[in-house]
């Protein structure tokens, strides 16, 4: 693609398969290789991005200024687009998506559609309805999410990858359709919930982005969630707390027990909550225990997780006794069910576990916010 100036106007020039398309509308026009239709593409940055708290033109969870503040592992994981979504409105009967990921990551216990795929929802009958998942070929991808008849205007939600980052993404629609920022305020007009946690909070191991429990909660509660889950690295870090304190949130949730050494849980939990309350005394904080892992035949309540939960309970008691207000606690019992079917590996929730987790914690979050 080239940009040229003609008679003082800026035009985009695209050469594709011997066909030249010129536009000054902000769209890129090209032929759909699947059926020859002409599609126009809107860059994701021209639409409404939710689930991130800074305004830099990317799909990273932290602004550039945090690169030197965070541990390298947290910074690197912060380039993953977990919890970030694109809201838009269109009357298109064809919706195509093109996206390039940063790392082309793979894992042996999580589907590629969850790691680096995208999925689409539409607002139908007063709720978000799943539409389709864009399957992954590699680093550079393209997929037709919708192909139907009619020209009905709908509000859409495109969820971005959980365990990879987005280098670029654009949404294509048939050339006679409109694609704009949303008209409705779904997921946009309320203060977000900030959720700080581990690989489980980041979305491991959902089959697709929309099944991460923070994304499930987002749709169910009509409120965006800022996902600060970092695989293996959710350890009550003060620099992460600094980023959280920049967000005028409805609630801060801290769910860092899974990644934190038992003997550090108490000290670090107390320190982080005190830091947040110093910076944002008006924002409530919810401490969440880790749920009991279900692999093996031992008694889970004799595990390290039980010891960590006891230390978190002790931290909560100390914080309450110190006089801090709006500090809340959520036990981990039964969060993913008791039938041993809620995980892929005894630890990380599958889609069933994610649904159960969201359903279990939602009343606690709603009660605090209300």
Please provide a written account of the structure.
The protein is of the alpha+beta class. It has two domains: 2-180, Galactose-binding domain-like (Jelly Rolls, Sandwich); 193-369, SGNH hydrolase (Rossmann fold), CATH 3.40.50. It has helices at residues 72-77, 112-116, 199-202, 213-221, 238-245, 262-279, 304-321, 351-369; strands at residues 2-6, 9-16, 19-23, 28-31, 38-43, 48-50, 85-90, 94-101, 118-123, 128-134, 140-147, 154-159, 166-174, 179-180, 193-197, 225-229, 251-255, 285-288, 327-330. Strands 6, 7, 9, 10, 12 and 14 form a six-stranded antiparallel sheet that branches. A five-stranded antiparallel sheet has the order 4-5-13-8-11, with no helix packed on it. Strand 4 and strand 5 form a beta hairpin. Helix 4 packs across helix 8 and helix 5 packs parallel to helix 6. It is globular and about 65 Å long. The model is unreliable at 1-25 (pLDDT under 50).
């Amino acid at each position: 693609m080239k940009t040229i100036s003609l008679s003082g106007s800026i035009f985009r020039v695209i050469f594709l398969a011997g066909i030249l398309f010129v536009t000054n509308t902000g769209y890129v026009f090209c032929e759909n290789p699947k059926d020859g239709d002409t599609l126009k593409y809107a860059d994701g940055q021209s639409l409404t991005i939710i689930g991130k708290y800074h305004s830099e033109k990317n799909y990273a969870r932290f602004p550039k200024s945090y690169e030197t503040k965070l541990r390298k592992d947290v910074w690197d994981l912060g380039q993953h687009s977990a919890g970030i979504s694109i809201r838009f409105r269109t009357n298109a009967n064809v919706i195509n998506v093109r996206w390039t990921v940063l790392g082309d990551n793979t894992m042996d216990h999580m589907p590629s559609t969850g790691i680096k795929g995208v999925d689409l929802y539409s607002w139908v009958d007063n709720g978000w309805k799943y539409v389709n998942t864009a399957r992954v070929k590699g680093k550079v991808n393209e997929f037709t999410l919708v192909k139907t008849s009619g020209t009905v205007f709908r509000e859409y939600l495109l969820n971005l990858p959980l365990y990879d980052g987005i280098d670029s993404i654009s949404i294509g629609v048939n050339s006679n359709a409109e694609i704009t920022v949303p008209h409705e305020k779904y997921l946009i007009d309320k203060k977000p919930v900030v959720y700080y946690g581990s690989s489980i909070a980041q979305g491991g191991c959902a089959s697709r982005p929309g099944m991460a429990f923070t994304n499930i909660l987002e749709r169910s509660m009509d409120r965006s969630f800022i996902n600060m889950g970092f695989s293996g690295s959710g350890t009550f870090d003060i620099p992460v707390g600094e980023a959280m304190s920049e967000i005028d949130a409805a609630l801060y949730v801290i769910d860092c027990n899974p990644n934190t050494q038992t003997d550090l849980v108490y000290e670090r939990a107390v320190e982080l909550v005190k830091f947040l309350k110093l910076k944002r005394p008006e924002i409530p904080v919810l401490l969440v225990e880790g749920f009991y892992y279900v692999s093996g035949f031992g008694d889970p309540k004799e595990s390290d997780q039980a010891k960590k939960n006891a230390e978190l309970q002790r931290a909560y008691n100390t914080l309450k006794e110190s006089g801090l207000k709006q500090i809340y606690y959520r036990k981990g019992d039964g969060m993913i069910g008791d039938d041993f079917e809620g995980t892929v590996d005894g630890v990380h929730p599958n889609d069933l576990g994610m649904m159960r987790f969201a359903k279990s914690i939602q009343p606690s979050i709603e009660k605090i916010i209300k």
